[in-house]
Input
Amino acid sequence: MNILSIILLFISLVNSLLALYSLRYRKSPGALVYSMLLVAISIYSFGYAFELLSHHVETIRFWLNVEYIGISFLPPLVIILAIHYTGRAQILKLWVVILLMLFGVTTLFVEHTNFHGLFYKEFKLVRSGQFTLSAFTHGAWYWVHQAAVNVILLISSILYLIQVNESSGINRKRAGIMLISCIIPWGIYLFYITGQSPHNFDLSPFSFSLVGFLAALGVFRFGLLEYLPITLEHVFNSMTDGVIILDKYNHLISFNQSASRIYPKLSVRKKGEPLEFEIDGLPPFADLTDGFEADAELPYGEVNAYFHIRVVSVYNDRNRPMGWAVIFTNITQSRLRENLLVQKEKQLMALNASKDKFLAIIGHDLRNSFHLIINMSEMLISNIEAGNKAGAIKKGKIIYNTSVNTYHLLQNLLEWALLQQKGMHFNPVKTDVVRLIDEEIRNLRTLCEQKDLTISHLPGMPLVVKADTEMLKTILRNLISNAIKYSYSGREIQISHSISDGFAVISIQDEGTGMTPEEVELVFRSDAVLSKKGTASEGGTGLGLRLCCEFVQLHGGEIRVDSKPGGGSTFSFTIPSGDVLGDW
Output
């Protein structure tokens, strides 16, 4: 065993261990290639160590074949690593990698088979001191391989040199290590192939001892495999904001991946073409100016998204404008949160208005009702004591009517308050509509008699719906009470029911005061209150119709009114009918 072979075996061992250690970073781009490169160097050094120990042609040829397992793949691995490390992995298309590796496979095949003398034209041994060395006439593919090696090492050195020039701090040191690891073996390799090496020794494997040392320094001292340069293109394409770059003539210069997701047509546009398409609601690109900002809703995949669009000028080193950058920032989440806040604000305002309305009703209508009941009660007592029977009956009727109206008002207030606080539960069950209508007519017949009104329920088919019984009672009570309140004495109120297009339709028609078109428009609006005196000066709050509207909507129906001044009103509401009675 000679000292040179020992050194080479040591170099082989070091590089093998470094290759094994590098696998822990295998998920980092380029780390796996780096590990494979160290394995190739290790095989090269190992084979050459035993070549120097051999003295026969067959043995030397065998170890040359072993060496070329590593040598054949060194060039492609070197250039792939350089491209990865300097942040240009986008040029490593699959076909490029395949071609590079096919070159290595071809070299290995030609060297092992010496196909038609393409690698060795003549092979012989020469004695140099204690060593027996191979001496051969080179074939054509040998020189092709040597040319490729030199071109690859040149390109790799240039890439690392650019990286050194563009980096600073620890990144510059890392790039410097890679540059030295490329230049030193290349220099020694050139020294060998030009015939300057003493006794024609191949010193390249020995130069890799320095590569191993530098690799160890880079890995353990500077975290070499933990770093991959981030190029401007990587940053550009990783941005969540869409960016379109235009020159000062509005020709397309570049765009990132986010922009192409916003505008898929960008992918088929050639760079340098005028950008002609427009954004709905915004000026054409040709009219955009520096500082322009606007929000727009745009298609984004299968849904629409909100974007904040701004335009900034792009300047050269002399601070002269070169073009524009149109930037699209996705503000969908913030816009949705803003819309939610606006919705919450409206709900709070509605609740606040409801509270004010509630307090106003309590403070005004209920107080007036009780004042009237108290006053009429005192007058009733006086009439009884004075034996004024007619006056007592009149005052008693007023007390009764006021008490009924106040009771209905309290019922509406309670139901309305529960609805606003979501304390009222919607509980639809099988409900006989005809029975409920007749029941409410009986409950309100006294009020009709006092105003000399006739109330009739027109005959119709039996009808059962799935509805909340208490809510349906409230709807009927309020609509019939309103018809009584605004009807002239001696007139008729007609109630009818029917089925139309899968809906139960209930109508209450009176011959009362009617409403103007302006009043009709305000009847069911939640932000307005329509309240006016009845034909007997009955008070009103407008709360009953609000409840009717909300309860009908909870059932999935609609409520409407047809009216004209002096011609009466017809209130109709619908509820999904389900099945007629008997089909349940």
